[in-house]
């Protein structure tokens, strides 16, 4: 008896490790990537606000108290 169940989504295929992968081919993935880059290009060009950059710098500094 085989206890494995077939995944309900027929667009998904199992790879050699038994994990699920998308049924989208490279061309479709490329088109999706192009569209996402076009949509979010303005956001990327805005950069990081100064207050966030300052916060990140403070978080990167080692604590003066040391690890707890």
List keywords for this structure.
single chain; 68 residues; mainly alpha; two-stranded antiparallel ribbon; 2 strands; 47% helix
Backbone CA Rg: 22 Å
* Distinct helical segment count: 2
Which structural class do you get from the secondary structure elements?
A: mainly alpha
End-to-end separation in angstroms reads 54 Å
Biggest sheet, strands in spatial order?
1-2
Shape: elongated
Secondary structure elements and pairings:
Layout: E1 13-14, E2 20-21, H1 26-46, H2 50-60
Antiparallel strand pairs: 1-2
Structure overview:
With 68 residues, the chain is mainly alpha-helical. It has a domain at 24-59. Helix content is 47%, strand content 6%. The chain contains two helices and two strands. The protein has helices at residues 26-46, 50-60, and strands spanning 13-14, 20-21. A two-stranded antiparallel sheet has the order 1-2. A hairpin with a 5-residue loop joins strand 1 and strand 2. The longest helix has 21 residues, at 26-46. The relative contact order is 0.07. The mean pLDDT is 77.
């Amino acid at each position: 008896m085989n206890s494995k169940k077939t995944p309900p989504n027929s667009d998904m295929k199992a790879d050699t490790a038994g994990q699920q992968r998308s049924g989208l081919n490279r061309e479709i993935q490329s088109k999706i990537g192009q569209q996402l880059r076009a949509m979010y290009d303005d956001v990327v060009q805005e950069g990081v606000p100064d207050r966030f950059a300052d916060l990140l710098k403070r978080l990167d500094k080692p604590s003066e108290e040391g690890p707890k």
